[in-house]
Amino acid sequence: MYGLILFSLLLNVVCFYFLFVLWKKLQERTITQDSNVSEDVVELLELFSQEMKEENARLHQMILQFSKQNHKKHDSISIQEEAEDVHTDLVEDIDHLHSDENNALNKVLLLARQGYNAEEIAKMLNRGKGEVELLLKFYA
Question: Minimal CB count within 10 Å: which of 57, 115, 134, 139?
Answer without folding.
Answer: 115
